Every structure is written in C-alpha cells, then in structure tokens.
Amino acid sequence: MTTQDLMEALNRTDERWLLEAEERLKLKTRRIPRRKLGYALLVAAALVFLLGCAAVLSHLRAEVPENGVHYTVMDAEGIHDINLPDTAMVVRVDCEAQGRLPVLRPGWLPEGLPEPGTAAGLDYSLLRLLRDGSELELYPGWRVRPFETLLAEAGLTAEEAECWYVGYHWEKPNAALLEIRAMDCCSIHERDLLLGMDGGTAELVAEGTRGSYEMLEIRVDYTDFYEASGHPRPAAESVKNYLFLFEPQEQYLLFLGGSDSDYSFETLEKIADGLEVRLTGLIFGERTGSWPYCMLDLGRG
User: Fold this and answer.
1) Which residues make Cβ contacts (< 8 Å) with residue 138, sequence separation at least 6?
2) Using CA atoms, how far apart are residues 187 and 285, in angstroms rounded to an integer?
3) Average pLDDT over all residues of the chain
4) 67-82: per-residue pLDDT in tens?
C-alpha cells in the first residue's frame, strides 16, 4: 500500500468517525457504555497508528520531474544555469547538515564476487580514503588534515580502517554492475540524487521500511536513451535496480545498485541485510560550494 492509498483510507475512516460522533451527540441523555467507550478508544489508537505509518517515509522521497530539473550554480568562474530536462527520477533526503561518516563491511555477496579491498573488488577502504587526499573531494566540506589526526578522529587503528569501507564496486566482463555506498548526511543534505540524469524510464517499485531504515526501490530502463544516443549497450547494462536505505536516527544513507540481469531487488535486499555498518568519529561540516545534485547512474561516470 502506497502513502497515497493509506491517506485515502484514513480520509474514509475520518468520515465514518465524524458520522458516528454526530449520531452520538444527538443522544445527549444517553451514556456511552464502557464496552463502546473502549471500542472508541481502540479506534482512536488505530488512527494514531495509521497516521504514524503514513508518515513513516518522512525523510526519504522520490519523484518523477515533469520538465526535468534546473539549477543555478555559482562558482569561481561565475554563475551557471544547468538544465537537465530528461532526468528520469529525483531522490531527496531530509537529513541533518552534518554527521558522522559511515563505513560498512559486506556480510554476504553473491557467489563469484571478489572480497572488498582486493584488486578485483576495488579498494574503497577507509584507510585508503584517509591516505589519498585526492579522494577526499568526494566529501564536500572536508578540511585536509594529517593522516594520523584523521585516523584518531575516526576512532580506528590503521588495521581496523583497512577492513572498513566507504563503498564496494564490481563490474563483470559482460558489463553487469554492482555498487554499494555508505553516504554521510553532509553529502546528501539539500542535494538532489539523480537517476536517469540524461534520460531513461524510471519506476518506483516499492517504498516503505526495512528494519530501522526508510526504503525506496527504483528501477531505471536506459534502453531508449542508449539507442537514441547511438551507443546501444548490452541488455545486461540497459536496466538497473536501485535500493535506497536511510537510517533516520543515525543519519546516513545506504545506496545499492545493480544490473537487473544479475542483481534483482531480492538480491540487493539480501546484500543490504548482511551489511555491517559503523559510524566513525569523523564529522563533516555543512556542505559549501558544491553542486546541488549528484548523479547516481551506474556505468555513467
């Protein structure tokens, strides 16, 4: 049941409630029996519960823009107007402006995938992130500090930092992709997360909760885009599944994406369920001078 369906059901419930209340008010001399009073209280409690369910996805939302998205960006070179009229889906997260950097460890990966940190699985370890200053531009608002200071702020030893990751990426020879990211709230605060930025057909497959997370599942079909661009791709690369999981209490986002041919939503959910997530002591300040959007399309840069 979608949020809209739930709200319509609540509206119908409210109408029945008001009619019943009106009939009760007409019987001024009658006293509501205890049994009926208890029933009324139960109904009221159910309404409170349903209203709470309707507001579950209060931090994470997705929409298909009717006319694309448009931004005005100011940088050292001046003011720029950016028009992306073909954007298929926009995901927005209502979160704090700053927060602690999350890191993860996969507990389960599909058979045949390399372990994270290996040459084949790419090294997105926290240790590499802190040692390689060029990678820090991925985190707006970052102020470069000595490696030893960063490690101390993270609250990890070098050995521990080597076994925790900010992400995981794997690309098969046939172009089937899998990507996992742990994103701090500074990276997503007041920032549009774009899918099908240059074209595609997006579908909101599911929304709800999964454990403590708010969840969105989105499928994007890039077939028409690839054909129109004159660069058709293999079927394994044309349709992608995306899973968004936001933790509202700890303020971080998990992003999982994969080619539909190899990574169904059921597979992405199983990977997500096996993830071990830890918040480091690294705190990022409010994002400044950064782009108001982030492209999350797999295999597109």
Assistant:
1) 187
2) 10
3) 79
4) 999 999 887 788 889 9
Cβ neighbourhood burial of 194 (10 Å; 0-12, 13-18, 19+) = buried
Identify whether the C-beta of residue 244 lies closer than 8 Å to the C-beta of residue 255.
Answer: yes
Contact 80, 262 (CB under 8 A): no
What is the Cα gyration radius of the chain? 24
Cα 177 to Cα 301: distance, rounded to the nearest angstrom:
13
Query: Among the ranges 90-104, 122-136, 276-290, which has the highest mean pLDDT value?
Result: 90-104
294 or 286, higher pLDDT: 294
The 3-state DSSP class for residue 9 equals: helix
Entry pTM: 0.78
For the chain, give every domain's residue range: 3-54, 60-295
Please report where in the chains the tokens 């074209």 appear, as a residue.
199
Enter the tokens of residue 261: 């041919």
State phi, psi for 195 to the nearest 5 degrees.
-120, 140
Task: Supply φ then ψ for residue 20, to 5 degrees.
Answer: -65, -40
One-letter identity of residue 172: K
Q: Which residue has the tokens 């521990």?
A: 160
Of 254, 174, 168, the residue nearest 217 (C-alpha): 254
Count CB-CB contacts under 10 A for residue 35: 8
218, 204 in Cβ contact below 8 A? yes
- b/e per residue, 44-71, with b = 16+ CB within 10 A? eeeeeeeeeebebbebbbbeebeeebee
Cβ-based neighbours of 208, under 8 Å, separated by 6 or more: 56, 57, 215
